[in-house]
């Protein structure tokens, strides 16, 4: 049989022969895999088998309300998901025979959410790409005399080779573990597309845009290489270990990029008489950043972080985006002055960790101690309760304040998937208009990541990422009933599921 | 012949007069005398004979043979008294071999601080140069679970040997009150956990363990009372043999007899209330040490008549507290009628004792109360006020002569007497270093 | 047309307001008159019933009967004592992270990057009359990092706290702390000297490379060969770590060396002399009394604890008479806190220098916490005494500041009140239920 692209599978009288052939192909493949990797044949076969089954399942939701994402709302619609795409969408769309039909009366369909800054699948990886040759001594190691002598004379931090903090030539995709359970948390929050980058490392490299629902990396990539990152967190062990050292490290690396870029240019223009410049692949991949050709994302949280990042960007004339910005409202003038795009996290910090918290009076009012024998009174923290509530409201209103200041931004879950919808609603309740907020987790991040053609709205031909709720997304009473990502139905973990880290759910089950 | 006799007598008299002896007489004249327990006397004279103060006033008779010291422009105070220190048992804080203040064990009632005090510690010369004449050196209870640390000793800083330095041994018994768990108090030291019983160490709540510990202590007290009776019976020949010596009970005899107080390390309201209950039930004398949050139950402490050694002046308040809290707490205690004094446990900081008192005076404590809190109050709290703490005829002549207010940091001690003996103030290792390097020749270049 | 003019005018007004607002808010400098107090200028002069007029943050006039110009707020200091704001030359408040101890030379790090203005310790320091402090790297390695000096403008942003024109300083550390507990090199004072010399030597080499390059660019040195003549000289790589040390060699960067024992400090004086520089200050420097004359000669400021001692072995020979001895021998003694608790009572620490020794006067004592700290920071032209032209940084006390019975009642920075005991929640107000 020859499968032609314009012959929809559903028109076959029966899908069974097709399915059997695919099963056999899968069996052959897994057999090959078995012989190569020596794994349990049954597990291998059944995983591919289920994947194939999952991938091929067709879904149709009938009678739903669809919030398209382009301003339109359609009522009483049938939507068909097939081959990982939104195959059909309309009032009179025929439901394919092979489709699992879901009665969507009373349900609303939104486009699956796009999170422009996560570290999904990138756990706590800090392994450098290659084994270091002259590594700076860790306190627990006992260095040899030769090593220590060398250390004394050579400046330790200047070893770029395999420095886990200087990997701008690294691509996140190479290290993403698609079986990480955090992906499930993201899926359950409705996030179907995520930009992922390692949280640790000053220059962790380029991020990748991936689907949140795949177990096979080959199927997971949407964009292999996306924004470059410069961060304020270092990889474990060695220099830099403190914030001030990270700042110095950033400066030195960017200075070096400028320097070696100039050297290369000069060498090309006039190599005779000039010592051949060193070539460090890591520094080399920073040249576009220095030239302002490549945009970098700088994660920041607090007001002080924001100011630090602005200083860095100014010093090196970077083209940049700030991400996180949970205290953006405290630096609104500075942000307005630079007008850079932002990724705003709704993972709110604790009020008492915000900048300037200490400026507020917090003295616990004096209360006469009740005499012995009297029932113990709980120590009231009246002073800080009100203060915390006030700061909390300011944090919730952050997105609204940035919006009213005319700043361009998208919204991210800030790696707190469990509370994403709740946090998102807090932002809306605090003043961010609902339609604006929805765009900032769908169409705008899709544009931002350059994938607006295939993501961000509920339109035919786009990736089948949808979130199905039993009411208006912004209402506290509304729950998410279904999530589809790449056309696959997400299985929600039962409420009493054990903590993340345990592989409980087997995809394709039930 | 007569000439020879007269000559010999004259020589003998001169020789005797010139020989240094402890039994000297001094008259300190033209001074501002601050007795502490009575009104200040201007242009007064204080007379020292043997170990005692024999006269104070504006019109006193100076005994013959007394050395007169003109104290015009100077002030005479009683020497200062730090009631809980590690003097003689600690040299360099960072070096454990020089820290000798704790012994392993839970009920160390027989351990004596005086066994460990080094009478030649350089801390002695430094402390008395700064006007501190008496300290109580106190053992500490070692680690969590320990209850009794040992017997405290009252020392004067004038003696050359331990025997000469010891004014009263024991003067108190150091105890750490077990924590009863739960909230109600801020942190602080003191309050160890109850010792583990054989079975249920893990399952017991702190409260249960603490209650068991207190029960053991009360039992020890009861046993001590019977032990005393047995000893008395033997003395009165009512029994043929003495009771077998029990060192633990021996140590508790003066406590049970109310001859010496328990210095109880406590912290937090709950802990203090339990300790007050314990003191009432066992009918012992007690002083609370540390006592964080004491100001919150000041009236209860006042009614229970339990005095406090206050050590928190140099704590840093957090943002939930008024910024001057630790300077002001002594005034709260004072106004509530709680007897208290100041204490600094580390002898390398002991010179700050008067300044703790002075700072509290800046923040509400009456100046005379601040002065009393480093002199007569601690003496009263430890039952030695007949000997020290103020300038009164009949008390030991332990006095300091200063060029200013005793509590001021710019003030210097000019003369000092401990138990009637004139102190060589220059015998201060730090001062000697100063003199040595002052004498370094200046090389003109 | 009218509409356009109207819009333009409105825009202009808005721009002016915004510009003024920005100008006003950054580095606020105010006007203030402090009247009728006992003014201890710190230069040896005490003015009874004295007044100080501050204009735009600077002391404009000092006298006995100054009338307040219109609109200038007045503080009545009758019965009170006024002195210059206390400067703490060694503090670890207001910083995020103290030690980058992962290598023996972290001179590229800069405390300025991590100053945080919302450390409650700042408020407590204000309550003790402190107006400015030097925020330093810690003592975990031989060469630590760059520092910063801030004014304690509680409630303001970091930018407003930084002292303008403050020269950079670099922290060094010797002795027990950088040796630490592990076996990492260097493990002795001998190794520390070697590390110091080797980095200064590298810095000297680095400086030579840069000086040569700049001289070639300026035409002062001929090109080395025909290629340099054709294409120009190739600049050396800029290295932040060696830049800091280059600044030290050029005398532009202050050096603050943590040291306790006499031999390690004498070592630094000798090593620095080989490079033509003198140390700006020694920190803690418990045994400087043994080398007082050497410090007097190099004009190195001894920044001390007044009476802490014996907490570790290298502090066991410390004496509280150091300040007096140094001052007598012509060296400069400064008293610091290195503690969020001690910073609150620096006035008493200064008073102690009178007790410990026979030569310190009141003025000498006050200088240890004011002028000498300013000299330490090389900011004596603008801070440290009450003199016309200097910054309006004052502390007001209800008794003589060197008395234990005094409390600070107001702390003023650049003519603005940042601490006022009348407005603060004190314990007695707190007990009465006032929030």
What does the secondary structure layout of this molecule look like, with pairings?
The complex is a heterotrimer of chains A (510), B (445) and C (435).
Chain A: H1 16-37, H2 41-56, E1 59-67, E2 73-82, E3 85-90, E4 100-103, E5 108-111, E6 113-118, H3 145-153, H4 182-188, E7 191-196, E8 205-206, E9 208-211, H5 217-220, E10 221-223, E11 228-229, H6 243-269, H7 281-284, H8 287-290, E12 295-300, H9 303-316, E13 319-324, H10 332-338, E14 342-345, H11 382-396, H12 398-404, E15 409-412, H13 420-429, H14 434-439, H15 443-448, E16 466-469, E17 480-485, E18 488-489
Helix pairs in contact in A: 1-2
Chain B: H1 2-18, E1 25-33, E2 41-49, E3 52-57, E4 67-70, E5 75-78, E6 80-85, E7 102-103, H2 122-129, E8 132-137, E9 140-141, E10 148-156, H3 162-165, E11 166-176, H4 206-235, H5 247-256, E12 262-267, H6 269-282, E13 286-292, H7 298-304, E14 308-310, H8 325-336, E15 340-342, H9 353-362, H10 367-372, H11 376-381, E16 399-402, E17 413-418, E18 421-422, H12 429-438
Parallel strand pairs in B: 1-4, 1-5, 6-8, 7-9, 11-12, 12-13, 13-14, 14-15
Antiparallel strand pairs in B: 1-2, 2-3, 5-16, 8-10, 10-11, 16-17, 17-18
Helix pairs in contact in B: 4-5, 8-9
Chain C: H1 2-25, E1 32-40, E2 46-55, E3 58-63, E4 74-76, E5 81-84, E6 86-91, H2 120-126, E7 130-135, E8 143-146, E9 148-151, H3 158-161, E10 169-173, H4 176-179, H5 189-217, H6 226-231, H7 240-249, E11 254-259, H8 262-274, E12 281-284, H9 292-298, E13 301-304, H10 322-328, E14 332-335, H11 346-355, H12 362-369, H13 371-377, E15 394-397, E16 408-413, E17 416-420, H14 427-431
Parallel strand pairs in C: 1-4, 1-5, 6-7, 10-11, 11-12, 12-13, 13-14
Antiparallel strand pairs in C: 1-2, 2-3, 5-15, 7-9, 8-10, 15-16, 16-17
Helix pairs in contact in C: 5-7, 5-8, 11-12
Word description of this protein:
The complex is a heterotrimer of chains A (510), B (445) and C (435). Chain A is α/β, with parallel strands linked by helices and 510 residues long. Chain A contains 15 helices and 18 strands. Chain A has a domain at 113-124 and 150-362 and 380-455: Metal-dependent hydrolases (TIM Barrel), CATH 3.20.20.140. In chain A, the strands form three sheets. In chain A, strands 1, 2, 3, 4, 5, 16, 17 and 18 form an eight-stranded mixed β-sheet that branches. In chain A, strands 8-11-12-13-14-15 form a six-stranded mixed β-sheet. The radius of gyration of chain A is 27 Å and the shape is globular. Chain A starts with 15 loop residues before the first helix and ends in a 21-residue tail after the last strand. Chain B folds into two domains: 18-79 and 389-445, Urease, subunit C, domain 1 (Roll); 80-383, Metal-dependent hydrolases (TIM Barrel). In chain B, 51% of the residues are buried. The longest helix of chain B is centred in the middle third of the chain and has 30 residues, at 206-235. Chain C has two domains: 31-85 and 385-435, Urease, subunit C, domain 1; 86-383, TIM Barrel (Alpha-Beta Barrel), CATH 3.20.20.140. Chain C has 14 helices and 17 strands. In chain C, helix 5 crosses helix 7 (240-249) and helix 5 (189-217) packs parallel to helix 8 (262-274). The longest helix of chain C has 29 residues, at 189-217. The interface between A and C is large, with 51 and 55 residues.
């Amino acid at each position: 049989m020859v499968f032609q692209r314009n012959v929809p599978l559903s028109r076959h009288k029966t899908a069974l022969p097709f399915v059997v052939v695919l099963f056999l192909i899968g069996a052959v493949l897994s057999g090959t895999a078995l012989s190569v990797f020596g794994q349990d044949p049954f597990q291998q076969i059944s995983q591919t088998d289920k994947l194939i089954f999952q991938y091929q399942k067709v879904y149709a939701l009938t009678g739903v309300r669809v919030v398209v994402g382009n301003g339109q709302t359609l009522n009483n619609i049938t939507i068909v998901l097939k081959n990982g795409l939104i195959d059909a969408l309309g009032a009179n769309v025929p439901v394919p025979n092979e489709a699992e039909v879901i009665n969507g009366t009373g349900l609303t369909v939104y486009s699956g959410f796009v999170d422009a800054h996560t570290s999904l699948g990138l756990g706590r990886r800090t392994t450098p790409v290659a084994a270091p040759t002259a590594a700076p001594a860790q306190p627990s190691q006992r260095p040899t005399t030769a090593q220590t002598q060398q250390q004394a004379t050579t400046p330790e931090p200047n070893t770029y080779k395999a420095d886990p903090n200087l990997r701008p030539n690294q691509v996140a995709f190479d290290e993403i573990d698609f079986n990480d359970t955090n992906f499930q948390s993201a899926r359950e929050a409705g996030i179907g597309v995520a930009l992922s980058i390692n949280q640790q490392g000053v220059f962790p490299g380029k991020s990748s845009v991936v689907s949140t629902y795949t177990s096979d990396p080959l199927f997971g990539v949407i964009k292999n290489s996306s924004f470059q990152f410069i961060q304020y967190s270092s990889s474990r062990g060695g220099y830099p270990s403190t914030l001030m050292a990270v700042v110095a490290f950033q400066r030195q690396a960017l200075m070096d990029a400028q320097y070696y870029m100039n050297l290369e240019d000069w060498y090309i223009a006039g190599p005779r008489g000039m010592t051949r410049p060193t070539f460090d692949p890591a520094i080399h991949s920073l040249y576009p950043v220095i030239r302002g050709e490549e945009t970098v994302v700088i994660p920041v949280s607090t007001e002080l972080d924001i100011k630090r990042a602005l200083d860095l960007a100014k010093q090196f004339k970077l083209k940049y985006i700030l991400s996180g910005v949970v205290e953006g409202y405290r630096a609104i003038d500075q942000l307005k002055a630079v007008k850079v795009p932002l990724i705003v996290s709704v993972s709110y910090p604790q009020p008492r960790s915000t900048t300037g918290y200490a400026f507020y009076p917090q003295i616990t009012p004096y209360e006469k101690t009740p005499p012995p024998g009297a029932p113990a009174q709980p120590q009231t923290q009246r002073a800080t309760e009100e203060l915390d509530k006030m700061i909390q409201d300011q944090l919730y209103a952050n997105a609204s304040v940035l919006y009213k200041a005319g700043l361009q931004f998208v919204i991210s879950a800030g790696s707190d998937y469990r509370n994403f919808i709740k946090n998102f609603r807090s932002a809306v309740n605090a003043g961010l208009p609902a339609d604006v907020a929805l765009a900032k987790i769908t169409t705008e991040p899709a544009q931002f990541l350059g994938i607006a053609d295939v993501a961000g709205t509920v339109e035919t031909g786009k990736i089948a990422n949808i979130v199905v709720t039993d009411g208006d997304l912004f209402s506290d009473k509304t729950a998410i009933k279904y999530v589809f990502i790449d056309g696959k139905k997400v299985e929600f973990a039962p409420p009493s599921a054990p903590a993340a880290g345990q592989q409980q759910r087997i995809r394709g089950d039930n | 012949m007569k000439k020879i006799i007269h000559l010999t007598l004259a020589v003998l008299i001169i020789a005797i007069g010139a020989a240094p002896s402890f039994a000297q007489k001094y008259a300190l004249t033209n001074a501002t005398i601050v007795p502490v327990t009575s009104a200040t006397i201007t242009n007064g004279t204080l007379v020292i004979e043997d170990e005692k103060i024999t006269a104070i006033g504006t019109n006193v008779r100076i005994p013959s043979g007394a050395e007169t010291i003109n104290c015009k422009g100077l002030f005479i105070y009683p020497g200062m008294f730090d009631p809980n220190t590690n003097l003689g048992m600690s040299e360099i804080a960072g070096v454990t071999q020089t820290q000798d203040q704790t012994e392993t064990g839970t009920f160390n009632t027989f351990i004596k601080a005086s066994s460990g005090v080094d009478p030649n510690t350089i801390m002695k010369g430094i402390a008395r140069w700064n006007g501190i004449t008496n300290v109580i050196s106190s053992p500490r209870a070692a680690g969590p679970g320990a209850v009794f640390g040992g017997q405290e000793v009252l020392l004067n800083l004038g003696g050359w040997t331990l025997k000469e330095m010891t004014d009263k041994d024991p003067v108190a018994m150091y105890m750490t009150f077990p924590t009863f768990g739960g909230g109600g108090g801020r942190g602080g030291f003191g309050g160890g956990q109850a010792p583990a019983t054989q079975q249920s160490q893990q399952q017991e709540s702190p409260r249960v363990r603490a209650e068991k510990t207190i029960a053991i202590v009360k039992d020890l007290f009861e046993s001590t009372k019977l032990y005393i009776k047995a000893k008395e019976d033997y003395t009165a020949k009512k029994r043929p043999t003495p009771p077998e010596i029990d060192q633990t009970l021996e140590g508790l005899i003066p406590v049970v007899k109310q001859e010496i107080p328990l210095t109880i390390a406590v912290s937090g309201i709950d802990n203090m209330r339990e300790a007050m209950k314990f003191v009432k039930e066992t009918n012992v004398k007690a002083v609370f040490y540390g006592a964080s949050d004491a100001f919150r139950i000041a009236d209860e402490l006042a009614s229970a008549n339990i005095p406090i050694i206050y050590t928190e002046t140099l704590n840093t308040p957090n943002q939930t507290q008024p910024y001057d809290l630790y300077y002001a707490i002594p005034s709260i205690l004072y106004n509530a009628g709680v007897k208290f004094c100041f204490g600094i446990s580390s002898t390398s900081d002991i010179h700050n004792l008067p300044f703790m008192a002075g700072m509290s005076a800046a923040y509400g404590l009456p100046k005379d109360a601040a002065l009393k809190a480093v002199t007569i109050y601690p003496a009263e709290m430890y039952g030695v006020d007949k000997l020290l703490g103020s300038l009164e005829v009949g008390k030991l002549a332990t006095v300091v002569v200063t060029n200013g207010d005793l509590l001021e940091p710019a003030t210097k001690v000019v003369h000092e007497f401990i138990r009637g003996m004139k102190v060589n103030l220059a015998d201060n290792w730090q001062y000697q270093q100063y003199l040595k390097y002052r004498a370094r020749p200046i090389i003109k270049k | 047309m009218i509409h356009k003019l109207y819009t333009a005018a409105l825009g202009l007004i808005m721009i002016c307001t915004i510009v003024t607002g920005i100008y006003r808010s950054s580095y606020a400098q105010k006007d203030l008159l402090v009247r009728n107090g006992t003014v201890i200028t710190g230069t040896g002069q005490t003015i009874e019933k004295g007044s100080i007029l501050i204009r735009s943050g600077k002391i404009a006039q000092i006298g006995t009967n100054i009338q307040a110009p219109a609109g200038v707020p007045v503080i009545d200091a009758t019965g009170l004592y006024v002195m210059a704001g206390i400067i703490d030359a060694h503090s670890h408040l207001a910083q995020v992270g103290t030690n980058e101890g992962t290598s023996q030379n972290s001179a590229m790090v800069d405390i300025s990057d991590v100053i945080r203005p919302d450390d409650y310790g700042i408020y407590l320091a204000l309550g003790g009359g402190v107006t400015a402090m030097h925020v330093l790297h810690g003592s975990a390695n031989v060469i630590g990092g760059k520092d910063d000096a801030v004014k304690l403008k509680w409630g303001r942003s970091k930018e407003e706290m930084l002292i303008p024109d403050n020269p950079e300083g670099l922290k060094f550390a010797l002795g027990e702390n950088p040796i630490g507990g592990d076996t990492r090199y260097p493990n002795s004072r001998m190794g520390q000297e070697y590390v110091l010399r080797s980095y200064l030597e590298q810095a000297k080499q680095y400086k030579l490379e840069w000086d040569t390059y700049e001289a070639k660019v300026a035409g002062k040195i001929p090109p080395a060969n025909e290629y340099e003549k054709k294409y120009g000289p190739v600049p050396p790589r800029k290295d932040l770590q060696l830049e800091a040390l280059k600044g030290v060699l050029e005398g532009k960067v202050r050096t603050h060396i943590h040291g306790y024992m006499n031999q390690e400090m004498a070592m630094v004086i000798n090593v620095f002399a080989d490079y033509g520089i003198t140390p700006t200050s020694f920190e803690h420097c418990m045994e400087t009394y043994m080398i007082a004359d050497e410090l007097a000669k190099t004009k190195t400021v001894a920044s001390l604890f007044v009476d802490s001692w014996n907490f570790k072995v290298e502090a066991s020979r410390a004496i509280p008479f150091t300040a007096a001895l140094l001052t007598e021998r012509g060296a400069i003694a400064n008293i610091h806190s290195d503690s969020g608790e001690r910073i609150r009572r620096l006035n008493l620490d200064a008073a102690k220098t009178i007790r410990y020794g026979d030569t310190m006067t009141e003025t000498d004592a006050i200088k240890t916490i004011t002028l000498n700290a300013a000299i330490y920071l090389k900011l004596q032209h603008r801070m440290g005494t009450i003199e016309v032209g200097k910054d309006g940084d004052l502390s007001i006390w209800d008794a003589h500041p060197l008395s234990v019975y005094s409390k600070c009642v107001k702390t003023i920075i650049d003519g603005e009140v940042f601490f006022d005991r009348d407005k603060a929640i004190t314990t007695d107000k707190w007990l009465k239920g006032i929030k």
